[in-house]
Design goal:
single chain, about 500 residues, Rossmann fold, Immunoglobulin-like, 3 domains, six-stranded mixed sheet, four-stranded antiparallel sheet, about 25% strand, globular
Length: about 500
């Protein structure tokens, strides 16, 4: 798919260097290229790279776009409607159009669209298969494995019933739509378990209040309902977040803060509940949010990043919070750097990469890339590294020192020797999620392919610098302030690329 961006000044859907020279000629791609919705029309109306449909359809077809998804959202006439006129003017040939059509038909043939219906196994599928217990279990597993535990003051897991009221509050506590995130399906609600559905049994009694009348924007905030819900509570679970109302396609955020009234909701819950009542914060969002306030609150004893766990949200959260099974021991790790505030983030117009992503970061983030806590603790020993001609192999011993069996994500990072071209300060080159029983040690093998060491030079293309590389192996990045508690081992290896 070619999208809305330009590459070296040329819109991606008109970029022959990208779609033909590289994608097809260099990489051997034999499928078809489809545009993102309206991307071809944006060449005229947004990029102003060309000024009419004839020139644009010729440029896109010659670049290699087989299929254009038009967008009627902006009342633009679809550019590919001009193919006939371009042929009539001699700008395109019938042979060229046939050439562009073939990959689409070949793909449909490979998919069996023209085969007899009885030979297509998917024709026999019905809801008993789609809604099978195996598929529902998979939804729970996917949600469980994605959760990231950001904070835990030795409060979780809950191993016994709370003797008293558990208060479940916030706009995401019983929200069957927003927990799916952007581009979520319209599904049968009978399979959706919200946090309220499952977490209300954590105590002998429960209360619930959304607080935010208008869902996640929380412009209409009912503070009295929160005060009433948390009165005499033994535990508070606050479910906050963004949802597709606030983030998604065409919905860039101007700030990484949660809506003000969502933060106020937590403050009101703390103020109106007994002084020794713990609060667990569960977040439903895709992009990072400013959590300095929650990190600093002593009453916020745990923070769970749930992302958008969809239909199994409630069941998976219950299993994680209670450690209902070994797989529920949290082992998700952050797939991005979580900045402290938006002032730490480079402007979107800055393409130098300075300060962007963990690879070029120049300051300590709130949570580093690869961060995530566990109910167990792990230690690393006996790191061995063996550079070969085309790869680097190694091993490390990982011990589960904690009270629970669980998964650990073994992360391997490298930093480059001094080189004539700029290199990242650090780069993840290998990771492996492994299960280790309590008190046991597992030897984990890893391999780093030479391509992971490549550095780009405008003069000579991709090269592997010769010299001594630093290698770090552990359950997190090296040299971070926000630590998961385990050690990170460091070694060196000399690599001389095979000519």
């Amino acid at each position: 798919m070619c999208s809305y961006n330009s590459i070296n000044g040329v819109p991606s859907c008109a970029n022959k260097e990208l779609l033909t020279n590289i994608l097809r000629d260099e990489w051997g791609f034999r499928g078809y290229v489809v545009s993102d919705a309206g991307a071809v029309e944006h060449i005229i109306h947004s990029h102003q790279y060309l000024n009419n449909s004839i020139d644009t359809v010729v440029a896109c077809i010659n670049a290699g776009v087989n299929l254009a998804v038009a967008s009627f959202k902006y009342d633009y006439t679809p550019v590919y409607f001009s193919i006939v006129e371009a042929v009539n003017q001699g700008r395109l040939t019938i042979e060229k159009i046939r050439e562009m059509m073939k990959p689409m038909w070949y793909t449909r043939m490979r998919l069996g669209e023209f085969d007899p219906p009885e030979s297509n196994p998917y024709k026999a599928l019905d809801l008993s298969v789609v809604e099978s217990p195996e598929h529902q279990s998979l939804a729970v597993e996917a949600a469980l494995k994605s959760f990231v535990l950001l904070k835990n003051k030795e409060f979780l897991p809950l191993r016994k019933l709370i003797q008293g009221k558990v208060s479940i509050i916030g706009p995401m506590a019983d929200n069957k739509i927003q927990i799916f995130g952007d581009y979520g399906p319209n599904t049968d609600s009978k399979f959706i378990k919200t946090p309220l559905d499952t977490l209300k049994v954590l105590g002998t009694d429960f209360s619930y209040a959304a607080g935010c009348v208008d869902s996640t924007p929380c412009l209409k905030y009912d503070n009295q309902s929160i005060a009433d819900a948390v009165k005499d509570s033994k535990m508070v679970i606050a479910c906050l977040g963004l949802g597709p109302i606030l983030e998604g396609e065409l919905k860039d955020r101007a700030t990484i803060s949660l809506p003000d009234n969502q933060v106020q909701l937590v403050k009101d819950a703390i103020e109106n509940s007994p002084p020794d009542t713990p609060l667990v914060l569960i977040l439903f969002n895709a992009g990072p949010v400013d959590l300095r306030w929650a990190e600093n609150y002593l009453r916020v004893v745990a923070i769970i990043e749930a992302f958008y766990p969809a239909q199994a949200a409630g069941e998976a959260l219950y299993k994680m919070i209670t450690l209902a099974e070994p797989m529920a021991n949290p082992a998700g790790r952050l797939p991005f750097t979580w900045p402290t505030s938006e002032s730490d983030m480079p402007a979107i117009t800055n393409y130098t990469m300075i300060g962007r992503t963990y690879r070029y970061l120049t300051h300590q983030p709130l949570y580093p890339f690869g961060y995530g806590l566990s109910y167990s603790s792990f230690s690393y020993n006996n790191l061995k590294v063996y550079p070969l001609m085309t790869e680097i192999i190694g091993s490390v011993d990982v011990t589960n020192n904690g009270p629970f069996a669980g998964d650990e994500v073994v992360q391997t990072y490298i930093s480059w020797p001094v080189y004539k071209e700029p290199t990242p300060r650090l780069q993840l080159v290998s990771f492996d999620r492994v299960s280790i029983d309590t008190g046991k040690t597992l030897t984990v093998n890893f391999s780093i392919v030479a391509v992971s060491l490549f550095v780009w030079s405008d003069d000579s293309g991709w090269n592997v610098p010769s010299g001594y590389y630093d290698i770090y192996v552990g359950g997190q990045q090296p040299n971070v302030t926000k630590s998961v508690g385990s050690n990170v081992l460091k070694s060196k290896f000399y690599f001389f690329p095979k000519s």
